[in-house]
Amino acid sequence: MRVHVVSDVHGNAEGLARAGDGADALVCLGDLVLFLDYADHSRGIFPELFGVEAADRVVELRTARRFEEARALSRSLWEGIDRERAVEEAVRKQYAELFAAFPTPTYATYGNVDIPTLWPEFARPGTTVLDGERVEIGGLVFGFVGGGLRSPMRTPYEIDDEVYAAKLAALGEVDVLCSHIPPDVPELCYDTVARRFERGSAALLETIRATRPRYALFGHVHQPLARRMRIGATECVNVGHFASTATPWVLEW
């Protein structure tokens, strides 16, 4: 069996259409939406609505961890605009293209910038969405837990630590543990370009230690200090920033 794994697609529909080539299945660990591209500030929902100059300033403030100032700037830009409607329309446009690019079969879970309530509208036959659920692929049991934890970024699908831990507990023992965010290990959570720690999950780390899956696969941190490490019997792997690489991580057995 050969499974290709991607995460942090962020609008790369062209790459996604080829991501399953040569594989028996594709696994997607979320973050399909591109709200703002930190490498190219002209791409994404935010610059489409407010222009590149505003995007430059927001990125500058967020990178400096001046989150309150970034939020104040965003509030001023959104004044007089139906934010929910504008974002939903833009996300729907992206989802239509991205879900159409998924090969069959695809097994997917949500990232922290995704909007789960919209996924049933776009997931076609052949795409299975899992969150706090498990599935067998080629004789191995894959468990999926989506979303992110509460953070200063306040992205769309952030949940309480207790809710996240309950979804992990519902999985039981699996061979491959799939999540969007990493376990709470500094080397796996630190982004060397953004120069900040992203939120990892302590419950995910505890689950890895307790249940000893063969693999723990995740994304979320685009330029991690460490892309992989072993925790006990488990190989922990950041599968990569697919938006920039267009290259899936390969699991064969």
From TrEMBL:
Alphabetized InterPro entries for the sequence: Calcineurin-like_PHP (IPR004843), Metallo-depent_PP-like (IPR029052), UPF0046_metallophosphoest (IPR051693)
An individual GO BP term: cell wall modification
Residue span, Calcineurin-like phosphoesterase domain: 1-224
Entry superkingdom: Bacteria
A GO MF label: hydrolase activity
Matching Pfam families: Metallophos (PF00149)
Name of the protein this chain belongs to: Metallophosphoesterase
Organism: Streptomyces luteoverticillatus (Streptoverticillium luteoverticillatus)
